[in-house]
Predict the 3D structure of the following.
Amino acid sequence: MTIVHVNVPYSMLLQRRDYAIGNHIHPEIYFSAEDLDTCCEKDARGLADALRENNLEVTFHGPFMDLSPGGMDRRIKEVTLDRISKTLELARFFRPKMIVFHPGYEKWKFDGNERIWLESSLETWKPLVEKAERMKLTLALENVFEETPDTLKALLDEIGSPCLRFCFDTGHHNVFGTRPLPIWLESLGKHLGEVHLHDNHQATDQHLPLGEGTFPFDQFFNLLSQLKLNPIYTIEPHEEEHLRRGLQAMRKYINF
């Protein structure tokens, strides 16, 4: 049976651990910068143990606000590297199936210069992927503001490690993507490790449950089937009611 993960902030999961366990929620734990600064080993170990004892599979979503793994400012990259490294250290307790990060490419910020971003990104991700390989972890880079799959494909192809994968975000594609959905999946399908499932009306990143916006989920799941892709599935509700509706909507496409 397929497992569906639910994105939950670390601080919220600490407070509502019993709810998550009682409702058999497999969490994708989001660590903000503040979470990384304030979490203690005792709490992290306790939460990890409780999830494991209740057979709940875990994935991670790393911090992303203000970070720039492909940026040009060395000081900003140092902070970025520190945040990502601390996320990997927490993985020692939870042993997540996947750890998702944002790659940070925005064409307006980089004036469309993909080569500068790629060279800087390789400096950041190559040693991190080597560390992930030693720790037996798998990382994934998620499309956010990318209009095309080109920059992500270039980075993933260049590193060429099974420990660095692609996370396709349906909501972000619906707002920012300019290439058709089949192009994205055909281009990056061999790297696909996870999908983030949420919906919107193409104007803002609303994080609606599946089917409540305009993203073509029927086409999406048909393409996954045609291309024989079997990623980790994660929904990203921003409201508790959206959690219930999101899980119900998923049953149209997969058994869990």
